[in-house]
Write a structure and sequence with these properties.
3 copies of one chain form a homotrimer. With about 160 residues, chain A is of the alpha+beta class. Helix content of chain A is about 30%, strand content about 25%.
């Protein structure tokens, strides 16, 4: 197990299985040079006790949303590991696009997506883990999931 | 006509004219190295009998949305062809961001955006056509159009 | 002061301070090679008299939204300047993702985001300033802000 995955375990987290898609038209990420363009990932993590579906501002608290963003980050990491071979090959978390299933007047999208950003920051450290980000409110997400996050990662040469 | 465009014709599709913009401040895509960063494209295809405007979950079926995503994919291809000269120069469909104009409880964004993903997958084949993706619900889209898709494409050297 | 920033001043605009984030997990942009991946920026510009918060189609006019997009563009430029050292190092405005806090039936997202696109086009000129773009409607944005824009910029070697 690599250094980053050991740190993840020490933080108390596990990786889910990399997401499988119901249709071969798409996959978890595509690599171009050293850049990984990552699909939208929701909070699918059978090993975590989280509320996966819901709408912030309606039937889900910011704390529950934070956990859902955390689970989405772990789903992304499982995809990145499968593509890169080892999480130690991540040079930089480049950017996240954090989407929150939320009501028209919900104000706290950043506090929800911090569940992912805090995890990446703690895991990869203050340089490699600090990333560009948007955290915004969606009218809806697939099957009513609470959060979806996509983004870009840079790998080492 | 190149191999990919011949395959597109054999699949029964035609390309619309590349989208023209009402203001010169923007264009259909911008190339950086071998990467094309593509604008959001809606279902504008005069040659197709489709429902271009509507909101999924309200006044439009998943099947109509699928067709709108298909038309959006063809609009993207017209832009990519204009930029690359020939669709045979596409090395990889990298990633799509699929936006569905939909109600707060609509659950089937992936089934709608499959209209674009299936087309790209069948057209470019299982390696070059398989892409990263998000399929999510928007509060609204320009002029009430049903679907908008942007993304990244990789060209050959 | 560089040529681009002089032109910006001649256009009657000033740059705000680069945005500071409440949490070190994120930053205004991340550079990979010559590409800047830019965070979502809202209309935070203390030097401008604008309506920063509101929902298009409900309590904000297109003209007010246009000004908010303009302020968001200036916030992006402050981030890009801080990262690149000088705005003259921008080779190309590559792509904007323009998000409008709006009601389900608001139709004019492009007219709002033109506030940013027109500014970039006039500032960088018809080649470097013409960019790919999406302009779409969000269910909500952080703290009720009216507009948020992210994107990609290319720097010179």
């Amino acid at each position: 197990m690599g250094a980053i995955e050991s740190r993840l375990a020490a933080m108390g987290f596990t990786l889910p299985q990399p997401r499988k898609f119901p249709n071969p038209n798409r996959c978890g990420c595509v690599r171009v040079g050293n850049l990984l363009f990552v699909s939208g990932h929701g909070p699918h993590h059978p090993g975590m006790q989280i509320k996966e579906h819901g709408k912030l501002g309606q039937d889900m608290t910011v704390e529950e949303g934070y956990k859902a963003a955390q689970a989405s980050a772990l789903a992304i990491l499982a995809t990145v590991k499968a593509a890169a071979g080892d999480l130690d090959r991540v040079k930089r978390v480049v950017r996240l696009f954090g989407m929150v299933n939320s009501t028209p007047d919900f104000p706290d999208h950043p506090k929800v997506i911090d569940g992912a950003s805090d995890l990446f920051y703690q895991l990869f450290g203050p340089e490699a883990g600090c990333h560009a980000r948007s955290a915004v409110g969606m009218a809806g997400l697939p099957r009513g999931q609470a959060v979806e996050i996509n983004g870009e990662f840079e790998l080492r040469d």
